[in-house]
Amino acid sequence: MHGAGPNLAFWVLAALTLVSAGGVMVSRNLLHAVLFLIVSFLGVAGFFILLSAPFLGMAQIIIYVGAIAVLVLFAILLTPRAGRDNGETRWAAPGVLLSIALMAVLLFVITDTKWTTAKDAPEITAADLGQALLSTWVLPFEIASVLLTAALIGSIMLVRSPEEEAEDALQ
Amino acid sequence: MNGLDLVGPQLAVLVAAAIILLVDALLPDHRRIMPFIAIAGLIASALWTTSWVVRDDYQSAFGGTLSLDRYAVFFYYLFAGITVTVVLASIDWVNREGRGQGEYYMLVLITCSGLMFLSAARDLITIFVALEISSIPQYILAGWGKDARSSEAGLKYLMLGAIASALLLYGMALLYGVSGSTLLPEIATFVANEGAANRSLLIVAMVLLIAGFGFKMAVVPFQMWVPDVYQGAPTPVTAFLSVGSKAAAFAVVLRIFFEAFRADVVSDDWSMIFAVLAAASMILGNLMAIVQTDIKRMLGYSSIAQAGNFMVGLAAISVSGHEFTLGASAVLLFLATYAFTNLGAFVAIIAISQKIGSDQIKDYAGLWQRSPFLAAGLAFCLVSLTGIPPTAGFWAKMYIFNAGIRADLLWLVIIGVLSSLVSAFYYLSVARQMFLGASEETGKLRTSPAIGLSLSAAVVGVLVFGIVPMPLISAAEHAVTIFATK
């Protein structure tokens, strides 16, 4: 990244992502936590665009903001007996200490490592991604459908009510 | 090998799963044939694998993401065998439960295909997808029962499994970020050439990978889910996850560490980590198992201790020349014998608990009079888990401790031998209850043909390989030749 513009964008996005990620943990209302999560997802999408990967940025917005966050909202609203609060925990203080320790380790490691960096971001189009998915990565790409089938059928089995099962038994 | 042949063994299993779903939906009067379709698919899978062995046709496929080698073939057979036993052991329970029969067998088969992919994967992305294919069905199966305990087991397994997956992904992301590749051979080249300059990052990545897979292996300190999930999940599912996902996690860890992290610059580090985890698992698992009163909880803690035993083989690499892979072959030998011994024990427990309606060890008193077959089968498997000759478990322990001694890990072997002595106490106290205890009930227990068949197969296997261990040992040694000597 060169110049003031991208640098400024980086710091704004970093602040946005981190502050809203903190908001997810701190807000006591579960709905507010999800809204913070959406902002955090948007920040990550901004990073992708900043790194010259606009397709990934759009995918991040469509999948994470559009699908996953909305799904979480629906799940909260449609679960009548579940509490709406984010819950207190006695482990907050040890958790904070542990996070600080972890951050110290990661900061040390990240500065200690010789990362390989490219001068210019490679031009990767959606077509290139599709090509890669159906050539090198065809196996994980295809067997992901097995995973989705199993998850779909399994989750239907788990949430079926006793009445529906009784109906099934009659048939 | 080309085209469909590359994924033939998994395809056979997945096609069987699809047929089961169709039978469930279209032919509800013929649901009884579903387990046999599952077994037919697994046999077809094993035959397909055999065709590779006969043709001596091993290769790397899909741009190197899958490695169809001797090592993968060993595990293909192991997982097919494990899944056949689990299906046989499930029949009675599934018929009694009555709900979702087709879905149950389908999920078991999909898990099996995931385990197979996991043992052959040679690329981080494929490893992760395969791991999830084998995990998510097991989370669902753990919560299959209708009682609150089973729901708790499913939920606990899912939540902690998700955290483990997140740690694993973080480790993989760091590794990819620094090496620029997800393929294990390319990561190996990077570690060998530039590992010294990036040692701290590699260690953090390895720790995260070990944490992620350690959850599946159920080693200390990633074991907290084991007792609750083992106790709460339906017993056939407990049997499956106590051997299936444990074996697959060891398979993939062996492949990652013996291939990608084999360079001297990091190998001593991970060898040390595994040694410490092994010692902690053996000590904690065995001590906690003593005080258990529920047999499924006891076997849960014992499986933690057994995972500690396997890990001695992972730690035993600080030898050079042709003995570099000695520890790896010991792990494979131990995994195979443990799988069938533990499955045998669980099959007996499934049959017993269905009849006496309890998992408490004290209710096993006097079982010898009520069902000599089940009592003898269970006792024999427990003897093998302890590692007393003439069982296969004896050779497995002997072989792995030998590998430890050769690698100058005498302290670890001493801990292993002492904790085996402790384990004899709780394994044999179950046997004592069954043979010497007195029961108020005296009615004979009848066993179904499926249970009888799977228990006999496990016991015969453990006995035969206990008396003639060489075929299994050479199969294990043959499989690890892919990790060429250092």
Question: What are the defining features of this structure?
Answer:
heterodimer; A: 171 residues; mainly alpha; Four Helix Bundle (Hemerythrin (Met), subunit A); 7 helices; B: 486 residues; 19 helices
Summed up, what is this model?
Chain A is an all-alpha fold.
Please, could you describe this protein's structure?
The complex is a heterodimer of chains A (171) and B (486). Chain A is mainly alpha-helical and 171 residues long. Chain A is extended, with a radius of gyration of 21 Å. Helix content of chain A is 75%, strand content 0%. Chain A folds into two domains: 1-87, Up-down Bundle (Four Helix Bundle (Hemerythrin (Met), subunit A)), CATH 1.20.120; 125-171. Chain A is built from seven helices and no strands. Chain B has helices at residues 8-26, 34-55, 70-97, 101-120, 124-142, 148-179, 184-194, 199-217, 226-232, 235-260, 264-290, 295-315, 326-356, 367-370, 372-386, 392-406, 410-436, 449-467, 470-479, and strands spanning 59-61, 66-68. The radius of gyration of chain B is 21 Å and the shape is globular. In chain B, helix 6 (148-179) crosses helix 9 (226-232), helix 10 runs antiparallel to helix 13 and helix 11 (264-290) runs parallel beside helix 17. With 486 residues, chain B is mainly alpha-helical. Chain B contains 19 helices and two strands. A two-stranded antiparallel ribbon of chain B has the order 1-2. Chain A binds chain B through residues 105-106, 108-110, 112-116, 135-140, 143-144, 146-147, 149-151, 153-155, 157-158, 165, 168-169, 171, and chain B through 7, 14, 21, 28, 61-63, 65-66, 98-100, 103, 106-107, 110, 113-114, 117, 123, 125-126, 128-130, 132-133, 136-137, 139-141, 143-144, 154, 177-178, 180, 194, 197-198, 200-201, 204.
What is the structural class of chain B? Answer: mainly alpha
Helix/strand/pairing category of chain A = mainly alpha
Q: What percent strand of chain A?
A: under 5%
Shape of chain A: extended
Rounded radius of gyration of chain A (Å): 21 Å
Low-confidence stretches of chain A: none
Based on the coordinates given, report the CATH architecture of the largest domain in chain A.
Up-down Bundle
Strand order of the largest sheet of chain B: 1-2
The biggest chain-chain interface is: A-B, 32 and 44 residues
Number of strands of chain B: 2
Mean pLDDT of chain A: 85
Rg calc of chain B: 21 Å
Task: Extract low-pLDDT stretches of chain B.
Answer: none
Estimate the helix proportion of chain B, in percent: over 70%
**Helix amount of chain A, in percent?**
over 70%
In one word, what is the shape of chain B? Answer: globular
The residue-averaged pLDDT of chain B reads: 88
Order of helices and strands of chain A: HHHHHHH
Work out the oligomeric state of the chains in this entry.
heterodimer
Give the amount of beta strand of chain B, in percent: under 5%
CATH topology of the largest domain in chain A: Four Helix Bundle (Hemerythrin (Met), subunit A)
